[in-house]
Every structure is written in C-alpha cells, then in structure tokens.
C-alpha cells in the first residue's frame, strides 16, 4: 500500500531532512523508526529542507506492507524525538508521490524586529539587528512573482534548470515579528533564504526595491546578497490537487 | 545608584534563577556579566523561578557605582547567552527593591492540548496527553482566589507562613493551547505548579471542581496532586506601584 505521513519538525538539531551517513537527519530518524515497525522503507519527501530549517508541514510517502495506520502513527510518535511530530497517517492511491504530486509549496521566513531579541523566538527567527522598512520589502518582493529564471537566487547545481514559478510573495508584520510568505510550485536550493537576504538589504535601505528585479535579470549569483540564516525558515504548507487528503490540524 | 533591570529568559538550560555553586543559573550568569562591567554586584530579584521555569518578565535590582545605563544594557546583552535578554535598564529611587516593592506577580502556565504535541511548543508547554475540560478547570480555579492558607499547595519550608493572597486565577483556551493565568501579591514555592497539577485532575474528570476548595481547607500537601512540570510555567509580569517605571515592550 502507499502511505502518506503529514509531519512537522524543529530543525535545530538536525543536519537537514535528507538522509546522510553519520549525522542526525529527519529522514534518518523517520526511516529508522519505520524500519522497526515495517522493515526497510525508502521515503519520498515533498520538500527537502536544509540543516536548521523547520517544517510546520512536511509530507512524506512510501510503499509498505499492509499495516494498521492508527497504530503506525502511535508507534512512530512514541519512537521519534519530541522534535518530530507525525500529525496524520493516511493511505493514498497507488503511485502517489509526496514529491511529484505536490502542486504548491508555501514557506514562511520569520524576522525578530524587536530591539532586543526575544529568548523565546531565538530558535525560530532571525534577529537582523537593523531597522527594516516592511512596506519597502513587500514592494520589492512583488517583483519575484511569476515564472522566471532564478539563477541569481539558486545555489548552483550543474546541468539543472533554475527556472521556477513563484505564485505569491509578500512581507507583513505581526507585532515585533516580520513574516515573509512565499508560495510556488517548486523551489531550487537556497532560493528562499537568498530572497530574504536581498530583501533585508532593501529593508535596511542599502538597495532599492527594484534590486530584486535587477537580480532576476542578471541571472548571476553575485547579483544577489548571499543567503539568510536557516533558523528563520519554515516549510509552512504542502498542497496537493483536489481529491487528495487535506492537511491535518497543524501547530 | 540603584539600578533596575527588566529581563526575560528561557529557563530550559538553567538550574533556576537563584545562584548556586557549580551549576548554571540565571542569577549566576547575570552577576558574572555585571561583575565584568561594574565589579562584584549582589542582585535582588522580584520572583525566584525553579529549574526549567521561564520568565517573560523578571525584574532585578542592585546598588552600583555611577554608570551609563544604555552602555550597560548593550554590554550585558553582548555578554549574556541568547537565552537571557535585558529589555531595559533604569535608574530607580534610592532603596528601591525589585522584590519588596513589587505588588503584583502574574504567572501563566501553558498546556498543549493537541492530540499530537507540537515540536515548536515542546519547550514551553505541558502536553498532558489527556482530554481536558477547560470550563471545569476554570470553575475550579475560581476557588483559589482570595487570602488563604495555601499549605496544601506549598512545598514545606519550616517556620515560614503559607498564607498568601491570590488576586485572580482562571483557565482559557487559545486554539490548541490552554492557558492558566494567576496573579497574586506573592506566591510560595511550587504554589502555581501545584495548582496546575490539581486543576488537570479536575479537567480530566478525576476530581470534582470543588477539589481546589477542599484541598485549601485540608492544609495538607497530601490533599493536592503534586506539581506540574516546570517547562509549562512562565513568570509573566511583575507590577510595581504607580510612579515606578512601566514594564518595557516584552516578547
């Protein structure tokens, strides 16, 4: 049967999602727990996340022998560390892929704009230490929407296309917290953290709001401004076409 | 001069507020940082917190040589770990005591009521794993308000009175999070965590809402239900009589 897991995790103590030898990863922890219940399992993930990046909503799929889904969920949550939570376990149609069927990925990046950073959001937001103009950042973010070649914002991967479609991008503020929300069909490696790094330069007044459009046109990594730190970034929500399961109640 | 610090801290990695030999405490970290700027300093605190308990708002006072307050704040925040934030440094009138002048202490205790606990609130809330009836807990909490002998809810301290005045106590829900807020002029050791432990028994339906009133009347530690874990508890706000500084912008 084809199984789908909807989960969230605190990425602080993981070397990213993807399985690696000798270091702790989310996929490694998940597959180790699955193995004790089901035997060896290879999981497919909707959105790989880098070291330190969090997921409020992540989706994983795999092929498995027939199993009681409620019991599988209880076993996984008992075995996994408190930093990983499995919110739901569903059976999907044969051939479902958490990665290839996903049609919209939403991320949020949080910035702590308080003068003195909060000890309670230190794990989950970036304290830039600068005054930021959120309207200016929002105006600049709008240039990123659409189908473009995002070469300036992608970590180079030989032979891979850097064309993507961004469906929505905007900055808002929520008290002392600034929130960048961006949605797309898919993203390349470091794309969102590269967006944030340049938008912070715009928010500080060191670049014009048109800097995002100029960087897009340049198709050159050097035209951007590096990458913002990983701990402010959350994979926020994965969406699938109608007919597949809706996301569960999430934190 | 008499100096007042308004601070917050994540208590996860501290053995409580109060200075102790050979273990990491908030007071120990703070006095070590103060010592490098001002020489040896003895601080007085508004509300001592136990190991693992957090403070959104804590106040500390001390006598010090004349010093530039803005610079002192910047130095402290540079030296202290990210888990402690100094939000403001003020000069108070001679003789001001963060402890003896405080006239209202407010605490909040957070319970994660989601079926599967959130990885993002694991440090800051108690996941009891039981369905809780918040209206029943709120009804039961009301019995705690007033001037009483709280012996049933206080960790015993030979020769010390256990009479206190609770000014307000109530449970509310905020999505999947239940919040117990309690205010008083002062509290004895473990009083709030003991309230919460009994109220959770009430919320689970194992005790009647009158259990709080009965426990009060018994004046016996065995009439309560132990203490809830520390990591759900926040010292939320310390208030002083009019004329003293208002609390700063807090997380």
Textual characterization of the structure:
The structure is a homodimer of 251-residue chains. With 251 residues, chain A is of the alpha+beta class. Chain A folds into two domains: 2-101, Alpha-Beta Plaits (2-Layer Sandwich); 104-236, 2-Layer Sandwich (Alpha-Beta Plaits). Chain A is 22% helix and 27% strand. In chain A, strands 1, 2, 3, 4, 5, 6, 7, 8 and 9 form a nine-stranded mixed beta sheet that branches. In chain A, a hairpin with an 8-residue loop joins strand 2 (44-45) and strand 3. The longest helix of chain A is centred in the C-terminal third of the chain and has 14 residues, at 191-204. Chain A binds chain B through residues 8-10, 54, 56, 77, 82-87, 114-122, 124, 176, 249, 251, and chain B through 8-10, 54, 56, 77, 82-87, 114, 116-122, 124, 176, 249, 251.
How are the secondary structure elements laid out?
The structure is a homodimer of 251-residue chains.
Chain A: E1 2-9, H1 26-38, E2 44-45, E3 54-63, H2 69-79, E4 84-92, E5 104-112, H3 134-141, E6 146-149, E7 163-174, E8 177-184, H4 191-204, H5 211-218, E9 233-239
Parallel strand pairs in A: 3-9
Antiparallel strand pairs in A: 1-3, 1-4, 2-3, 5-8, 5-9, 6-7, 7-8
Helix pairs in contact in A: 1-2, 3-4
């Amino acid at each position: 049967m084809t199984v789908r897991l909807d989960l969230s995790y605190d990425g602080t103590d993981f070397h990213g999602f993807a399985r690696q030898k000798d270091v702790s990863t989310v996929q490694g922890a998940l597959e180790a727990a699955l193995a004790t219940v089901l035997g060896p399992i290879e999981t497919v993930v909707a959105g790989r996340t880098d070291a330190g990046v969090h997921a409020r909503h992540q989706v994983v799929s795999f092929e498995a022998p027939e199993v009681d889904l409620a019991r599988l969920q209880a076993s996984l949550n008992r075995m996994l560390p408190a930093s990983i939570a499995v919110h739901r376990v569903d059976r999907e149609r044969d051939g479902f892929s958490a990665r290839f069927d996903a049609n919209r990925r939403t991320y949020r990046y949080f910035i702590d704009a308080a003068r003195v950073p909060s000890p309670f959001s230190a794990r989950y937001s970036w304290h830039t230490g600068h005054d930021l103009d959120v309207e200016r950042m929002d105006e600049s973010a709008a240039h990123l929407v659409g189908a473009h070649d995002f070469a300036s914002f992608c970590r180079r991967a030989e032979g891979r296309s850097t064309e993507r479609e961004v469906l929505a991008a905007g900055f808002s503020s929520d008290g002392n917290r600034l929130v960048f929300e961006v949605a797309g069909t898919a993203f390349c490696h470091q794309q969102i953290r590269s967006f944030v790094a340049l938008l912070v330069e715009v928010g500080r007044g060191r670049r014009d709001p048109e800097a995002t459009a100029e960087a897009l046109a340049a198709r050159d990594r050097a035209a951007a401004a590096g990458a913002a730190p990983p701990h402010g970034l959350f994979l926020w929500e994965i969406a699938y076409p109608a007919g597949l399961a809706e996301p569960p109640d999430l934190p």
